[in-house]
């Protein structure tokens, strides 16, 4: 385990099981359809790469990036689109793929935004959810696991752009971001 972590929450095997289960649910629910999978940069990238391989249907890959927390650990609630989709969403089944829903502000903003585009459907798949931190309700159509209120890193999730490449997901020692 990395020295800056307090504990490992999900190891590689547990993450793989989560992804397999989500891929199976999505494959079942969208049977006969095509999916336009929208990965939210950068946190969801590792999860996204594994998830699309666990979906046994035609999938088109695209990405969006929203304004981030900077180097802090709390959301400002002031969301902006930094990078938009390459193609129009009209008539497509949009599956948003996110790393973690915390306050819910980012995904709430994005779901509202998608309601104004003419997508055929819009659903949300998040690897993780922190229900105790929610400020606004968000419908999570697919969720890997609910997690406690701690600052997590690894498997795509960063602190100050670090730790994304850890193959497992764990709790960052508070002393790392409190200093
Ligand atoms: P929300 O808008 O739901 O508050 O924030 C969602 C975003 O905040 C996530 O996509 C993620 O980038 C970041 N975030 C929320 N909780 C954590 C966490 O525990 N660790 C990390 N690294 N990022 C988090
Ligand atoms: Mg994210
Ligand atoms: Mg981040």
Automatic annotation (TrEMBL):
<keyword id="KW-0460">Magnesium</keyword>
<feature type="domain" description="Phosphoribosyltransferase">
    <location>
        <begin position="11"/>
        <end position="159"/>
    </location>
</feature>
<dbReference type="InterPro" id="IPR050408">
    <property type="entry name" value="HGPRT"/>
</dbReference>
<keyword id="KW-0328">Glycosyltransferase</keyword>
<keyword id="KW-0963">Cytoplasm</keyword>
<keyword id="KW-0479">Metal-binding</keyword>
<dbReference type="Pfam" id="PF00156">
    <property type="entry name" value="Pribosyltran"/>
</dbReference>
<dbReference type="InterPro" id="IPR029057">
    <property type="entry name" value="PRTase-like"/>
</dbReference>
<comment type="pathway">
    <text>Purine metabolism; GMP biosynthesis via salvage pathway; GMP from guanine: step 1/1.</text>
</comment>
<keyword id="KW-0547">Nucleotide-binding</keyword>
<dbReference type="InterPro" id="IPR000836">
    <property type="entry name" value="PRTase_dom"/>
</dbReference>
<dbReference type="InterPro" id="IPR005904">
    <property type="entry name" value="Hxn_phspho_trans"/>
</dbReference>
<keyword id="KW-0808">Transferase</keyword>
<comment type="function">
    <text>Purine salvage pathway enzyme that catalyzes the transfer of the ribosyl-5-phosphate group from 5-phospho-alpha-D-ribose 1-diphosphate (PRPP) to the N9 position of the 6-oxopurines hypoxanthine and guanine to form the corresponding ribonucleotides IMP (inosine 5'-monophosphate) and GMP (guanosine 5'-monophosphate), with the release of PPi.</text>
</comment>
<protein>
    <recommendedName>
        <fullName>Hypoxanthine phosphoribosyltransferase</fullName>
        <ecNumber>2.4.2.8</ecNumber>
    </recommendedName>
</protein>
<dbReference type="GO" id="GO:0016757">
    <property type="term" value="F:glycosyltransferase activity"/>
</dbReference>
<comment type="pathway">
    <text>Purine metabolism; IMP biosynthesis via salvage pathway; IMP from hypoxanthine: step 1/1.</text>
</comment>
<keyword id="KW-0660">Purine salvage</keyword>
<comment type="similarity">
    <text>Belongs to the purine/pyrimidine phosphoribosyltransferase family.</text>
</comment>
């Amino acid at each position: 385990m990395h020295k800056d972590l307090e504990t490992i929450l999900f190891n590689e095997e547990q993450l793989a099981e989560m992804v397999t289960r989500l891929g199976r649910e999505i494959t079942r629910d969208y049977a006969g359809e095509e999916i336009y999978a929208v990965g939210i940069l950068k946190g969801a990238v590792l999860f996204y790469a594994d998830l699309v391989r666990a979906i046994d249907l035609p999938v088109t890959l695209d990405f969006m990036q929203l304004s981030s927390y900077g180097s802090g650990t709390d959301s400002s609630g002031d969301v902006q689109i930094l990078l938009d989709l390459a193609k129009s969403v009209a008539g497509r089944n949009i599956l948003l793929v996110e790393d973690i829903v915390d306050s819910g502000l980012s995904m709430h903003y994005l779901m509202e935004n998608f309601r104004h585009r003419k997508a055929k459907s819009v659903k949300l798949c998040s690897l993780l959810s922190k229900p105790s931190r929610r400020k606004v309700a968000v419908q999570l159509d697919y969720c890997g696991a609910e997690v406690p209120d701690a600052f997590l890193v690894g498997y795509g999730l960063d602190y100050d752009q670090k730790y994304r490449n850890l193959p497992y997901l764990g709790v960052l020692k508070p002393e790392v971001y409190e200093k």
